[in-house]
Amino acid sequence: MDPIVVISGLDKVYAGGHHALKSVDLEIRRGEIFALLGPNGAGKTTLIGIVCGLVRPTSGRVTVGGADIRRDYRAARSRIGLVPQELSTDMFSTVWQTLVFSRGLFGRSSDPAKVEQVLRDLSLWDKRDAKIMTLSGGMKRRVLIAKALVHEPEVLFLDEPTAGVDVELRRDMWALVRRLREQGTTIILTTHYIEEAEEMADRIGVIDGGEIILVEETAALMRKMGRTEVTIGIAEPLPAVPPGLEDWAIGLSEDGCVLTATLGGGEQPDDAGVADLLKALAARGVDARTIAMERSSLEDIFVDLVGRRP
Description:
The strands form 3 sheets. Strands 6-7-8-3-9-10 form a 6-stranded mixed beta sheet, sandwiched between helices. It has 10 helices and 14 strands. Strand 9 and strand 10 form a beta hairpin. Helix 3 runs parallel beside helix 5. By secondary structure, it is of the alpha/beta class. It has 2 domains: 3-222, Rossmann fold, CATH 3.40.50; 227-296, Alpha-Beta Plaits (2-Layer Sandwich), CATH 3.30.70. The two termini are 35 Å apart.
């Protein structure tokens, strides 16, 4: 799949000397959902700001749909929709006026039908004549999303889109994101709700200290770096772990009735590892009565990745 966003050698050093981005290389594929994860201060917002033309890089190059974000700003920016963290829009305009203005700002022709479609998709149609200042926080967040979509961008940035929003909006927004991806829109999101990234994203990127430390397909990442904790209750207490099982790193409870093991890490699929472990136990006369498994989440992997760095 060809890339739609190409970031090469991107550096950003702020006036105070803070090195926010360090030689970042990244390609975002057309039509994918890409989750950019990182701790606070890792460089996520700076990276998004540069790609969206809001922050000037110190060095490096960014193209969106082949258009250079610095040399061909208007063409590149017109391909991008941005839903920022902050609720910032003209509070005295109506919802309808806000979207019509935003569409025109990006050089799109007047299209009331498109504006209506976006409003209906985000359950804002009944609020079309309301002034922004009269809306609830959740409704204002919907308006920001509508503003980002109304000029029909090829790439949509969602910067912490569900922070502080209600469950209904979160559900509606992820349903909308899936529809947009089906229509060919590329989605790039940052989120502190890592379970959302695990569920939604095709690929995961992790940034820390201004550097991209990992980019991986979500399923492959879970397979390679995920772990499964296996707890096995046995019929008869054991005085010790049976010999020949050292490679499994098995632990035995004090009462000798429970064995525990950690599987995974890319060596083999977890389910296959559990089956092999049970066969090895049976071959040594151990009768397993109960089995419980707990798989690590993307959040566990993320914490482990970031925690390893100096």
